[in-house]
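Consider one such protein record:
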Amino acid sequence: MSESLVSKGKIILKKGEGRTIKAGGAWIYDNEIDKYEGEYENGDIISVSDFDGFFMGYGFINHNSKIRVRMLSRWRKDPIDREFLRERVREAWNYRKTVVDTSSCRIIFGEADWLPGLTVDKYEDVLVVESLALGIDKLKNMILEDLREILKEDGIIIRGIYERSDAPVRRKEGMEQYKGFIGPEFDTNVLITENGVKYMVDVVNGQKTGFFLDQKYNRLSIQKLCKGKKVLDCFTHMGTFALNAGIAGAASVEGLDISELAVQQATANAERNGLSDTVHFRAADVLDELPKLNRQGEKYDVVILDPPA
């Protein structure tokens, strides 16, 4: 057994608090805590008990955040050490292998995988990491090293890791926003294939970690609707929905986005998929363009709306 990662710190909840944790919740807020005991630093792993002394688990503590504790485990018997975290990573990867195409996918999804605040996306042979909580940030490099080794066991060699921890929410954890390489630099343009469509993903400048992996099955569902149709794709970004319509045999597809860069990327993706004759993109403000198209009497069989959050 490796060295324990648990500090000597402990919190005790107020009387009547803890119901959300017992029901499966992953966070403890500052106003739920009655006492702080023992020695620890922000980002350390501490133990959690309710007002009556019932052990509720281990979690990362951070006094900079209203989310005072992010739960890591519910079981006293869990040895919270490096091997424990390695098994968490292995479980996350094994689950993805059973439910998704793992060529490009989200391997670690924070609290859903009991690694709170950490997201790791795999684009072919590149990993992109987002760390949004101080506790997991302190263990990030160790977790990524173990993930790399676990993938290698399946014959997957990762050529590089890039960090996209540039979300403003990091400041609420007392951390600076950050973008940069973890380890040696590498070419950050990655060619992926999803639903039979090829995309060049820019993990440095793209949205989120470079690509909206969570829309995979929505994009696939569009294919069933578009064969032989005239399609308008609004807020097209990299042209993902438009390209799925095109590859499904749409008669014509027009994609709109306010960003010139996005239009350039989408146009390059259309060329990459041999769809330049039927799928076209142009820079336009969708909110201005839709009334204009209506006045011009333009009609479409399928209109796709995927506005930014």
About this structure: The mean pLDDT is 96. Residues 105 and 122 are 5 Å apart (CA to CA).
